[in-house]
């Protein structure tokens, strides 16, 4: 049975890909849990578009360099996140409206730059990533991101939790704003880290899908975080194997694995599922004969 | 010595909505605040809690860490996966800061508070499983764990069953006897008359601090 895992033993590039993806899950999944719990799942999607002009600028300046593209993406994403947060607080305009306007402008700028100066092959690379070609620079970038993310979450967990349940509670400390802004920056940081492995469109999936699945099964924050990380890691393993054996595209395969678990959870999960409660009620009212006898 | 003093205070977002010539609270005072919808009650609370700056005048009150604020129920998200006990315990976060762990001395008042609010048997339940009344009691319990000197309650009794109202009112009175000043937005005249010593009423952009809790004032 373990023969199926042979590629990870035999090939260094598969081990690197697996290590990189697991690190990415360790970092992205907890961020995703807070995004889902704070009901800002779509913000990640918007920000993933917002980093595009920075990534394009990095690519156009330095070629396919992880550091240049990631730095560009980080700057663009952080700018959009911070400007959105700042302008929403200043103008009292709804946050989603501001974010949508900023990210659309940013996306248009990114596509404009790639179309004028690059080729469509480059664009595909940016959008869907290349997990199997994990370079040293990409691994180091992901490891750095995971370190920053986990420390930041550890330091800010109390304001984050409080701000998520009762945002008005923190109105007099700046901690609520700090928690919110830090979370936005962590989203950007993790999107950029996922850029190389998953691509700018798919990176957000590794945040949102494991957390959404966890929401159908867990009721404690600890179990949410742990199961999101493990689910992400398992999906990455399957995705890489699918990519190796069947030549499937890696990041879509990973997300499709997670997507099918999500559909199952939506139908049969313990909480907020379509059929789960009915099924359990039916099982209780029809105990099996073995138990009776 | 007044704990809270408002002098020639003007509050509003861009335009002044409410003007307060003079108002004050001493430690232990219990004041009911009434006024029609849109009269500026929430704007006043937003100013007192520092969400918006005052447009002018003088405002003296305890530092932010000594203020307990209970916003209306719609502002919270109960789906967050933490237990009732953890939620009430989080009242200590202000004092413990971001990192320090909770010790036994922190847990004892939480247990007492849960018992006081008749939530002890539900303490391990997730917040989402509480009824509206139980959740409101848990919110107030969390605030009182903080031992605030100045308690701001925004329509705390809305849509509550009678039992929850009684439990909460008793806890508020107990807190005020221990020295906490309470300002509470209310719509219920019986509660305003029975549970509160003084009554502030907002009408036509002015705060009347000597209003009696008359029925017609409270029909809002």
Q: How many extended strands of chain B?
A: 9
Strand share of the residues of chain B? 15-25%
Helix tally of chain B equals 8
Which structural class is indicated by helix and strand composition of chain A?
mainly alpha
- SSE arrangement of chain A, N to C: HHHHHHHHHHHHHH
Describe the main β-sheet of chain B briefly. 6 strands, mixed
Instruction: Name the CATH architecture of the domain at 2-201 in chain A.
Output: Orthogonal Bundle
Report the β-strand fraction of chain A as a percent range: under 5%
Termini separation of chain A: 37 Å
CATH homology group of chain B: P-loop containing nucleotide triphosphate hydrolases
Shape designation of chain A: globular
Indicate the CATH architecture of chain B: 3-Layer(aba) Sandwich
Average residue pLDDT of chain B:
86
Q: Regarding CATH, which class of the domain at 2-201 in chain A? A: Mainly Alpha
Give me the Rg of chain B, rounded: 17 Å
Coarse structural class of chain B: alpha/beta
Write up this protein:
The complex is a heterodimer of chains A (293) and B (220). Chain A is mainly α and 293 residues long. Chain A has a domain at 2-201: Orthogonal Bundle (ABC transporter involved in vitamin B12 uptake, BtuC), CATH 1.10.3470. Chain A is 80% helix and 0% strand. Chain A is globular, with a radius of gyration of 20 Å. The model of chain A has no long low-confidence stretch (mean pLDDT 86). The longest helix of chain B is centred in the last third of the chain and has 16 residues, at 162-177. Chain B has one domain (4-74, 82-218): P-loop containing nucleotide triphosphate hydrolases (Rossmann fold, 3-Layer(aba) Sandwich). Chain B is built from eight helices and nine strands. Chain B has a six-stranded mixed β-sheet with strand order 5-6-7-3-8-9, sandwiched between helices.
């Amino acid at each position: 049975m373990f023969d199926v895992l042979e590629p990870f033993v035999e090939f260094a590039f598969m081990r690197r890909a697996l290590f990189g993806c697991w690190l990415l899950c360790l970092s992205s999944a907890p961020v995703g849990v807070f995004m889902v719990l704070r009901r800002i799942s779509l913000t990640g999607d918007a920000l993933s578009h917002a980093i595009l002009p920075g990534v394009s600028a990095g690519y156009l300046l330095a070629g396919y360099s992880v550091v240049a593209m990631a730095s560009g993406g980080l700057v663009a994403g952080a700018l959009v996140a911070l400007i959105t947060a700042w302008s929403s607080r200043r103008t009292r305009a709804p946050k989603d409206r501001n974010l949508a306007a900023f990210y659309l402008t940013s996306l248009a700028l990114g596509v404009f730059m790639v179309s004028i100066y690059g080729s469509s092959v480059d664009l595909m690379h940016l959008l869907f990533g290349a997990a199997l070609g994990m370079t040293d620079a990409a691994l180091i970038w992901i490891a750095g991101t995971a370190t920053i993310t986990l420390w930041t979450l550890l330091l800010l967990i109390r304001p984050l939790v409080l701000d998520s349940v009762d945002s008005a509670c923190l109105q007099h400390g700046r901690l609520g704003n700090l928690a919110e802004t830090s979370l936005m920056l962590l989203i950007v940081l993790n999107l950029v880290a996922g850029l190389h492995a998953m691509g700018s469109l798919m990176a957000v999936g590794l945040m949102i899908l494991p957390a959404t699945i966890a929401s159908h099964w867990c009721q404690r924050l600890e179990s949410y975080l742990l199961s999101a990380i493990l689910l992400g890691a398992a999906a990455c393993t399957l995705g890489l194997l699918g990519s190796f054996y069947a030549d499937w595209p890696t990041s879509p395969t990973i997300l499709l694995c997670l997507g099918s678990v999500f559909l199952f959870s939506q139908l049969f999960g313990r909480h907020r599922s379509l059929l789960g409660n009915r099924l359990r009620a039916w099982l209780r009212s029809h105990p099996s004969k073995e138990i009776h006898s | 010595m007044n704990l809270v003093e408002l002098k020639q205070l003007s509050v509003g977002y861009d335009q002044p909505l409410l003007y307060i010539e003079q108002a004050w609270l001493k430690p232990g005072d219990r004041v009911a605040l009434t006024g029609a919808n849109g009269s500026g009650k929430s704007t006043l609370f937003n100013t007192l809690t520092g969400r918006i700056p005052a447009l002018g005048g003088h405002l003296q009150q305890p530092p932010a860490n000594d203020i307990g604020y209970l916003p209306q129920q719609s502002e919270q998200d109960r789906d967050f996966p933490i237990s009732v006990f953890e939620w009430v315990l989080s009242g200590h976060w202000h004092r413990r800061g971001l990192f320090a762990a909770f010790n036994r001395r922190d847990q004892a008042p939480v247990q007492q508070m849960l018992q006081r609010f008749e939530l002890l048997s539900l303490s391990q339940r997730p917040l989402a499983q509480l009824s509206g009344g139980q959740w409101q009691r848990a919110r107030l319990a969390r605030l009182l764990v903080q031992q605030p000197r100045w308690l701001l309650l925004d329509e705390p009794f809305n849509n509550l069953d009678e039992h929850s109202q009684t439990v909460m009112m008793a806890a508020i009175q107990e807190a005020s006897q221990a020295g906490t000043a309470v300002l509470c937005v209310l719509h219920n005249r019986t509660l305003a008359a029975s549970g509160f010593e003084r009554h502030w009423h907002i009408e036509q952009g002015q705060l009347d601090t000597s209003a009696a809790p008359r029925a017609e004032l409270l029909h809002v």
